Amino acid sequence: MMDRRSFLKSVGVAAAGLAVPSTAPGAKTAKTASDRLNVVLIMVDDLGYHDLSCYGHPKIKTPVIDQLARDGIRLTSFYAGATVCTPSRMALMTGAYPTRVGWTKGVVGYMIRTDEGLSPKALTMAEIFKSAGYRTGMCGKWHLGDRKPFLPHRRGFDETCYINKSNNQTRELWRGDELLEKPFKNPLLTEQFTAESIKFIKANKDKPFFLYIPYTAPHFPVQPHPDWKGKSAFGKYGDVVEELDSRIGDILKTLEAEKLDRKTIVVFMSDNGPEPGTKESLARPYRGRKWSALEGGTRVPCIFRLPGVIPPGRRSAEIIAAIDMLPTLSAVCGIDLKSVSKGSPVIDGVNVWDTLTGKKGSKHPRKDLLYWHGSQGFQAIRVGDWKLFLDRRGARLKTKGKGPVLFNLAEDIEETTDVSAKHPDRVKAMEALAKKRLAEIEASVIPMGKVK
After folding, report:
1. Do 441 and 97 touch, CB atoms closer than 8 A?
2. Is the previous residue joined to 208 through a cis bond, with omega within 30 degrees of 0?
């Protein structure tokens, strides 16, 4: 296995001089660095599948995100990297199932010690993009480790403004190693992270950039900005989500004003399903919430936009996951991950760009997906429309009988009717595939990083 420094060097060599937009169907070949595609990756915290008006919420109004969906593609079978914060971010940043990079349960600060974090041996998306000549920025919640080796500005990000953990776990706001505020004002964080993001875009408009914006909202405590308090028709939670929508609009307006909107891939997603304690947040029509391996735990909103390349007004129900972000965004930005396929960690994600652009004749590459509970380990596998929980008792599904539990998601989106007895051969095949996938992961696990 190639070491981290050699991997970074080889990525840079592979990507140097590539005409990035030439990899995007319908885009013109780039001739200079300033013509390369940018990436703005927006991730909100604990937003449920049902919490946007374009995903069916009757009271929360999100006109900006709704327009983003109309301008691009809205995914209806998109899965976050895990059911809780830390492993979800591990998966997004590495393109690997979080267990492959040492995660077993919990989040940093709860079930994971604060002297542990994402191993420096596990390359991040920021490190890969930086090695390819991109300017990299991060504004928001990190949650991949508190100690120096794990911090975002030591994991590939040139510019940062962040909190280490969730907004209920810390009171410190940082820029690099500089403590900006203690305590920070929670209702103002969305505004602050947006301002920092806009500043980054303007400062790097003449060079390719990768900007990661993992907002802290609407994670609890749900506290509206003073200018948004009482504005929505859905209480404090609606106020916070509607502010997020407006602030994202400010970022999109900046891209347009700087003439970057047609050369910037914008991605919007949530990190996992709704927090159990935040009753206003909903995963309808799915059952389950954050921590749960039921659909509501990880099936979340996701939207992609790239004008002139991704046809507007599209919707896809294909299985796509956060682990697919790294290979997909790398490919469209001209970073050849195949040339460094022996790097660390092994990437479990696949390139879904042809699906996003609707390329005729292309076959969707993701056929199956694994699910973990946030604290109880591996629980299920999805193959097509079928989902199998391997341990009925451990998953606490409240279904009668023994052995694995099989659901047909096309007919039973609430996962209430066990059909395993009717499809024994399917159960056997899916169980065998799950065990094969797990064995492949266990054969190449990178332990969590630890500071002595």
Report:
1. yes
2. no
CA-nearest of 381, 400, 401, 398 to 389 is 381
Q: What is the pLDDT of residue 398?
A: 74
Write the CB contacts of 424 (distance below 8 Å, at least 6 apart in sequence): none
Q: Which pLDDT belongs to residue 340?
A: 52
The class of domain 376-445 in CATH terms is: alpha beta
pLDDT at 406 (0 to 100): 97
Q: Is the pTM above the cut of 0.85?
A: yes
pLDDT at res. 48: 97
189-203 and 235-257 helices, crossing angle to 10°: 10
- The CB-side HSE value for 131 (13 A sphere, CA atoms) comes to 24
Residue 329 and residue 332: Cα distance in Å, rounded? 5
How far is C-alpha 414 from the geometric centre of its chain's CA atoms? 23
Question: According to CATH, where is 3.30.1120.10 located in the chain?
Answer: 376-445
Torsion of CA 209, 62, 188, 159, to 10 degrees: -10
Buried b (16+ CB within 10 A) or exposed e, 7-40: bbebbbebbeebebbebbeebeebeeeebbbbbb
By the 10 Å C-beta count (0-12 exposed, 13-18 middle, 19+ buried), 370 is classed as: buried
Query: Looking at domain 4-20+34-357, which CATH architecture does it have?
Result: 3-Layer(aba) Sandwich (3.40)
Residues in the chain where the model's pLDDT stays below 50: 1-5, 7-31, 341
